[in-house]
Structures are given as structure tokens and as C-alpha cells.
Amino acid sequence: MRYAAGWRSRVALGVPAGLALLLLVVPLVALLLRADWARIPSDLATPTVLPALRLSLTTTSVTAVLCLLLGTPLAWFLARSDHRATSWVRALLTVPLVLPPVVGGVALLMTWGRNGVIGQHLTPFGIQIPFTTVAVVLAETFVAMPYYVLAVEGAMRGLDPRLESVARTLGASDLRYLRTVGIPLVLPGIASGLALAWARALGEFGATITFAGNFQGRTQTLPLLVYVELERDPQVAISISIMLLAVSVLVLGVLRGRWLR
Amino acid sequence: MTPPGLRRDGLDARVRLSRGAIEVDVALTAEPGQVIGILGPNGGGKTSTVLALAGVLPLAAGHVEVGGRLWDDGRRRLAPEQRQVGLMLADSLLFPHLRALDNVAFGPRSRGVPRQQARQRARAELERVGLADRESARPGELSSGQQARVALARALATDPALLLLDEPLAALDPDTRARTRSDLAARLAAYDGVTVLVTHDPLDALTLADHLVFVEDGKVSQTGTPADVLSEPRSAYVGTVVGLNLYAGQGDSHGHVRTADGGLIVTTSPTEGPVWATVPPSAVSLHLHEPEGSPRNAWRLRISAVTMQGQSARVGLVGGVPLTAEVTLESVTALGLQVGHDVWAAVKATEVRTYPR
């Protein structure tokens, strides 16, 4: 049953609610209004765009594959464990979610840099990670993996644990259970986890520019190019932004019904 | 009681483990081909016992030996996938993304049987439960009764030495349950391993099991054949299950039984010392005034509940000798039986059975 609201409370609640909506929607509309739609095709054909697009697609794809191959087993361990340490691991996983990406970039430099915790052992072999395409992938994986693991873990926790008991009495090892039952049943969760992680990787800026730099063709991804073009040719920046916006909306479409109601 | 290790085939187990507040300690032995029915109130340790037999729960102590092989001795245990065990639970728990055939073939495939052979075996098992024509159906397309039969076929497709059925019919509606029960009985008759059937439905236990084990608060309260248990229940729960009024008391040679609550029951079949006394609900007659004639039991009791059951009514009575009486609907109306009223309950002394406690 709904009560007729008095005009007082309607104003007291409606005004801030409307303001919140405006704060979120107006920038998106502004972007669309300022776009020069006729120019978009030629803007996207600018010599700087193609390498950035290609780099963004390859690094985010590699990131997605890394999430799938490494994140799925981690999600499985987290999902089936009731150990106290598990909640600590999960808490650690959420840190990259809330960490300022620039700080993530600095942390990655301290890890993989010339004198970094791991990097110092790679330097003698002539292996340099920072400011390479590999660094872009590492930065993207650092920020995106948590989204994937948490999404897939949630899906795996939703499975009836008795399914696993039955599968094991039928003779299935952990690996076989996961391959033939566990993963097929959480495919929707894996799909939405991948979409989330991929979208996060595509938008990655702070950690990348700190850890991988901004070298055209090597580490300059689309978001970095937007930043550069904003100074040189704002219209190109807007065109790329429109493309990224379209991709984001597409990802939302993939997630629809899973994460959004 | 067979000492552990002597029985060369069949099941010999003593399951000891803690589950929440309950200390489970249940001993089970069975010959191949036998069906052991485990009954008991919910939360009493039935399912924990089954899961320990399957290897899903570890034993704290005790042992599980099947077909002469030690599966668990409280220290070393075989993982579920290393045991020759079949498990079927209340919700059939079929793999929802696999066809019926692949559900049944899952076990053989997991045990290294080549695909074609596994499918052949699965087809044979589906045929035995009457589902040969539904092999391509996914679980969602099957009725609950069909799902239960596929789950049974799946559990048997690996030739388990021990088949565990935990409330296999509980999730079915009454019609389907009756039909599936007879399908299950037919299939179990052809199975030569040991079956452990957990249920809280007395009908399942009486129609499917050769031997009953009652588990209450983690302990075995009574074991015996269905006939034994029906005639001589030895705990309040078992009394309820078999539908008898059951009293613990002290008997003397004159046929008097004094119950713990101070009630007096008269019987024509005296047993001396600590005894159980049973009164069938159908042997109780209710009266508004004190009935005449002897030797009879007549107690003034208060009505605590009246429920209908088909053409008769069950009347719950509290007082010195708490009773459930089964009377006709006519007497309910004729006597004006209502909750809170006092009535006389009479039982012939010949209807009271006693046996040593």
C-alpha cells in the first residue's frame, strides 16, 4: 500500500534525488551533445588511434585470459573453504578494488621495477618489465582480477555443496568435478566476471601510466590516448570517449539480468 | 554383535563423530543384499551417519568396513571417490546441465570407463528403472519421480558395494511417492550390495527395509526386524512411529504396571520387573461416565487434541496415563468430545501387552 506523500516530504526527498540523478546523467549527455558525429569515423581513423585501439584490445584480452586461468582456481578455493584465513584472503583481494590506481602503479613499480622485490632478480637476465606492454597487462590484471574472482566465487558459493559430495561418491576427483560440473554450472557467473574484469581493464589509467608509461604503440592504451588528445585535439578525445562509452553500455547489456535487476 | 574385521563381506561399521551438539555413536552391520532402514527424529544424527559412510564426513573414531575392505578407522580414511559407494539424497541432485544418460554415465566415466561403454551401462541402468525413453531429457524436463529414478540409476551405475539412500522419497508428492517406492523396492530387490536407507517415514522403512535401526540423539535406541519393532517398541519415538501408546513402568506378578508418572495399568499378561507396556489406540474406548465391569483399565483424562484421520478420529488425552485413542467420528459427535473436556478412557486388560525393558 502506498501513502499519499505530503508536498513537504516530496520536496525534501525529491530535490536531492533529482540533483543526484542530474550529477550522474548530465556528463553523459554532455559528452553526446558535444560530439561531432560526422567526424567520429575520421577521428577514429587518426594514426594514433589505431595502435592504441589494438593495444587496448590485446592487453585487455590477455588480462581476461589471465583472470580466467588463474582467477577461477582461486575463486574455487575461496568458495569451498570455511577457514578463517579465507576471509583474510578475500579482504586482501578487495584492496585493489578501493586502492587509488596510481598507488597500485607505484606498488607495481616496487614489485617489478629495476630494484623491485621481484624485478631485481630479473634485471641480471636483462628482463625489464616497467614501461613495456607486459607492464600494461600486469597493471590491468592487478585492478581487474579482484572483480573476476569475487564474481566467480559468489557464483560458486551458490552451488549446492551436496552436488560435489554426490560427484565424489561417483568417483570424480576435485579436478574432474570442477571441469565437468562446477565450471559448467557457474558459466553465467564466469561470463559476468569476465565482462566486469574486462571493462575495468579497458578503463585502466592510473596504474598503467605510473607503471607502464605512455609510449605510443607500446603502452599507450585508449584511456591514455584520450588524456593526450584532450590537449592536442579535444574532438578526437571526445570521439574515442564516445566509443568507450558505447563499449561500456554493451558490457552492461551482457551483465543485464545477472547483476542488474 | 560381530567383532570388527570378522565379517568378510557386507557392512560392518561403527560411526563415531560430533555433529554440533550431538555425539553420534552408531553401529551398523549388514549382509550383502540386506536393506538397513535408519529411522529417527530430525537432527538425531541419521544424515551424519550416512555422510560418514560415504566418506564426506570424517570419523572421529570407530571404523567402516565394506566387503572386507577398511574404508575408515578414524585415522586413515579413503576419500569418497576411492570407495565403492553410491549416494542418493532427497533432492535428486542430478547435474542439471547433463542429459539423464550423461548423469548416469558420470560415475563410470569418472572411474575411467570409455565413453561408449559408460553410455551403454547408463542405458542399461535407465532401462532397469523404466526410463529408457527419457535418456536425452535434461533433469529440468523430468518429473520429480523420474528424477529420483535417474538418481537411483546413477548411484547404481558404479556397482557400489554400499548404497546410501538419504530420504530418497521425501521430496516427492504423495502419489508419486507411492509409485516411486514400489519402483525402488523392485530395483533394490535386484541389487546385491548393502543398502542403508535413511527415512523418517515408517512406511518407507517397513516396506523397503529388512532390518531397522532407530537413531535418537546420536545413539541407537532400538534395532530389529520390522515385525519385532512393530510389536515391541522400546522408546517413546519408536512407539510413536509404530502408532502404539508406550509406557515404561514396573510390573508385578498380579499384572499391575506402575508407570514412572504414578499411573496404574492392568494387564492379563504380567511381566515382572522393569517393563514396557503397550496400548493400541484402537483398543481405547471413551466414555462420559465411569465405565462398569472389570478387569478393565479406566482413567479420567483431559482431552488435549482431536484430529481427523479418514473415517476415524485420534484423540490426545493427558493425565495420569497419557493416551492417544482412535475412535469413530460418531463417538466424537455423540460424546461431544472437545479439547479441554474430561472423559473416561477404558482399555481391556487383555489389550495391554507387556515385555521386559
TrEMBL record, chain A:
Originating organism: Terrabacter aerolatus
Tell me the subunit arrangement. The complex is composed of two ATP-binding proteins (CysA), two transmembrane proteins (CysT and CysW) and a solute-binding protein (CysP).
Tell me the keywords, alphabetical order.
Cell membrane, Membrane, Molybdenum, Sulfate transport, Transmembrane, Transmembrane helix, Transport
Which GO CC annotations does the UniProt entry carry?
Answer: plasma membrane
- Which Gene3D superfamilies does this entry report, sorted A to Z? MetI-like (1.10.3720.10)
Could you say which protein family the record assigns here? Belongs to the binding-protein-dependent transport system permease family. CysTW subfamily.
What membrane topology does the UniProt entry give? Answer: Multi-pass membrane protein
NCBIfam families to which the protein is assigned, alphabetical: Mo_ABC_porter, modB_ABC
Locate the ABC transmembrane type-1 domain: which residues? 53-255
Question: Where is the protein found, in the record's own terms?
Answer: Cell membrane; Membrane
Which residue ranges does UniProt annotate as crossing the membrane?
12-33, 53-79, 91-113, 125-150, 177-199, 236-255
One GO MF annotation is:
ABC-type sulfate transporter activity
Give the SUPFAM superfamilies listed for this entry: MetI-like
Q: What does this protein do?
A: Part of the binding-protein-dependent transport system for molybdenum; probably responsible for the translocation of the substrate across the membrane. Part of the ABC transporter complex CysAWTP (TC 3.A.1.6.1) involved in sulfate/thiosulfate import. Probably responsible for the translocation of the substrate across the membrane.
Q: What is this protein called?
A: Molybdenum transport system permease
From TrEMBL, chain B:
Q: PROSITE patterns attached here?
A: ABC_TRANSPORTER_1, ABC_TRANSPORTER_2, MOP
MF (Gene Ontology): ATP binding; ATP hydrolysis activity
Q: Per its UniProt entry, which superkingdom is the organism in?
A: Bacteria
Provide the ABC transporter domain boundaries. Answer: 6-242
> Record keywords: Iron included?
no
Q: What is this protein called?
A: ABC transporter ATP-binding protein
Residue stretches making up the Mop domain: 292-356
Gene3D superfamilies tied to this protein: 2.40.50.100, P-loop containing nucleotide triphosphate hydrolases
Biological processes per GO annotation: molybdate ion transport
Keywords from the named record: ATP-binding, Molybdenum, Nucleotide-binding, Transport
| Source organism | Terrabacter aerolatus
